[in-house]
């Protein structure tokens, strides 16, 4: 069924719409199609939503780009700082760097389990084989999102990034278009940006997950996996109080602190922070 109005509400998700339409095209068409995707951001959870529906697809082209900073987050210009086009250029370059850092952070926080490993290896293999080609648009902010099916089988245009949340849970608005003229214009828009974009080695980013790491870093990662549910709550308790607990030194955790396992752990917060920093620096 052609997706026409998709908002991730009450089961009307982009993931379901993409899967259903890809299945329909596979059954209807004699030859596999190309799937073209433009998205400001990406995570493997987005790829997971379509990975099982690619039998009728012979190639995917994924166009990434940095999204504009939300207005409340735009910093005030200070005296002596650039303004006009120079300020916009600096803001964009900062966004590109943040985009790289965010992709690495998301990779480092992925769970370590067989299912996740299989998904990532499949994705990396598809990139290395040329089935999934990735570029990033670096001339300006890229805020548009679209999913183009073949050359003339329609497009889904709206707000959903190619991420797990964008395809399943965020409140989004996406409209399907199947009129030949509109589909052609959307295709021309994509091809123009694709031609100006630069190849982006998304495979290398995720291949780092499978590289050997020092045993100590693996040990720290194990600790982080075991206690990470406590970390957020611990930091929240520490930041909510500006005064030390009675009988403790300033900023030191109380000796009565107890983990979710029921064990007293007066200094766990410190090594949790150290392990998190070590993991991040090692990009495990």
Protein architecture, described:
Helices cover 46% and strands 14% of the residues. By secondary structure, it is an alpha+beta fold. The protein has two domains: 5-210, Endonuclease, Chain A (2-Layer Sandwich); 215-241 and 255-282, no CATH class. Helix 8 crosses helix 9. The longest helix is centred in the last third of the chain and has 26 residues, at 215-240. The protein is globular, with a radius of gyration of 23 Å. The two termini are 42 Å apart.
Q: What is the structural class?
A: alpha+beta
The largest sheet is:
8 strands, mixed
Number of helices, where a helix is a run of at least 4 consecutive DSSP H or I residues: 9
- Helix/strand order, N-terminal first: EHEHEHHEEEHEHEHHH
The CATH topology of the largest domain is given as Endonuclease, Chain A
What percentage of the residues does DSSP assign to strands (E)? 5-15%
Fourth-tier CATH superfamily name of the largest domain: Endonuclease Chain A
Q: Determine the N-to-C terminus distance.
A: 42 Å
The percent range for helix content is: 40-55%
Going across the biggest sheet, name each strand in turn.
1-7-6-5-2-3-4-8
In short:
It is built from nine helices and eight strands. By secondary structure, the protein is an alpha+beta fold.
List the SSEs and their pairings.
Elements: E1 5-6, H1 14-28, E2 33-39, H2 44-50, E3 57-65, H3 85-108, H4 114-129, E4 132-137, E5 145-149, E6 155-158, H5 164-168, E7 174-177, H6 180-196, E8 198-199, H7 202-207, H8 215-240, H9 268-282
Parallel strand pairs: 2-3, 3-4
Antiparallel strand pairs: 1-7, 2-5, 4-8, 5-6, 6-7
Helix pairs in contact: 8-9
């Amino acid at each position: 069924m052609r997706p026409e109005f998709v908002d991730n509400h009450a089961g009307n998700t982009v993931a379901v719409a993409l899967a259903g339409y890809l299945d329909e095209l596979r059954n209807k068409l004699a030859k596999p199609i190309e799937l073209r995707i433009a998205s400001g951001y990406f995570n493997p959870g987005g790829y997971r939503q379509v990975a099982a529906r690619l039998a009728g697809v012979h190639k995917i082209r994924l166009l990434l780009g940095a999204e504009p900073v939300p207005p409340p987050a735009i910093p005030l210009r200070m005296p002596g700082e650039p303004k006009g086009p120079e300020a916009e250029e600096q803001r964009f370059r900062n966004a590109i760097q943040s985009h790289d850092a965010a992709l690495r952070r998301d990779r480092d926080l992925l769970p370590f389990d067989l299912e996740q490993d299989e998904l990532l290896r499949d994705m990396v293999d598809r990139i290395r084989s040329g089935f999934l080609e990735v570029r990033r648009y670096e001339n300006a902010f890229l805020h548009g999102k679209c999913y183009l099916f073949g050359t003339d089988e329609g497009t889904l245009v709206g707000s959903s990034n190619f991420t797990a949340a964008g395809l399943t849970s965020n409140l989004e608005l996406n409209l399907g278009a199947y009129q030949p003229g509109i589909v052609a214009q959307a295709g021309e828009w994509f091809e123009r940006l694709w031609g100006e974009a630069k190849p982006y080695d998304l495979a290398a980013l995720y291949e780092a997950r499978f590289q050997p790491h020092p045993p100590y870093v693996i040990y720290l990662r194990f600790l982080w996996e075991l206690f990470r549910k406590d970390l957020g709550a611990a930091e929240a308790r520490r930041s909510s109080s500006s005064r030390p607990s009675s009988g403790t030194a300033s900023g030191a955790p109380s000796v009565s602190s107890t983990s979710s396992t029921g064990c007293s752990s007066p200094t766990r917060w410190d090594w949790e922070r150290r392990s998190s920093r070590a993991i991040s620096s090692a990009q495990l």
